[in-house]
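Wed. Picked up where I left off yesterday with Chromosome partition protein Smc. The coffee machine is broken again, so keeping this brief.
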Amino acid sequence: MRIRSLEIQGFKTFPDKTVLQLQNGITAVVGPNGSGKSNLSDAVRWVLGEQNVRTLRCTKMEDVIFNGTPQRKAQGYAEVTLNIDNTDRALAFDKDEVAVTRRYYRSGESEYLLNHVAMRLKDINELFMDTGLGRDGYSIIGQGKIDAIVSAKSEDRREIFEEAAGISRCRYRKEDSERQ
Ligand code: ATP
Ligand code: MG
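Structure written out below (C-alpha cells, as returned):
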C-alpha cells in the first residue's frame, strides 16, 4: 500500500484545489513558518476520519474550512481525497486504486466517500484498521507523540502494539458484537 496523492480543496490554507503527488521514496515538504506544511499532515489525518479537533489543531471542526483572507473569501466546505495504490491488497478492498474522500460543510454536514461512493465513517475506520494508516494508526507521528507513547499507561501502549500486530480488527469486532 502506498499513498499516491493527496488532493485538497478548501482545507485550512488551501482554498484552491491542490494536488500533492507522492513519488516512490522520500518526500520532504519545505516552506516558511505558517505556510501550511503541518496542515498537509492534518489533511491526511482528517481524511482518515480524525474526529478530535485538538489533534487537528482546531477548536471546532469548522476551523478546517479555509476561513478567508483580506483577498479571498472563505470557502463553504473543505474536501480532501487520499489516493492509495492498493495493488498489494493491503486494504481489504478489491481494487488497485482506492480513493478516500471526506467533505465537510459549514452547515455541519459531512460526507465520506470510498471510490466516489458514500460510506459511513465506521466503514472507513474498519478499512484502515490494522494497517497502521488509519485514524488510530501510528503512521503519522506528530510532535510530542514519542513522549506520549513512552509515558503512556500500559493499556494505551498496548493499543499501539495491537495495531502494529494486526489484531485491532479482532478486538474491534469482538467489542462491536458485544455492544449489539
Ligand atoms: P511551521 O514551520 O511553523 O511548523 P507550517 O508550515 O507547519 O509552519 P501550518 O501550521 O501548516 O504551518 O499552517 C499554519 C497556518 O495555517 C496559520 O497561518 C493559520 O492561520 C493557517 N490556517 C489554519 N487554519 C486555517 C483556515 N481554516 N483557513 C485559513 N488559514 C488557516
Ligand atoms: Mg508545522
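Quick read: The helical segments are 37-47, 121-128, 145-150, 154-165, 168-179.
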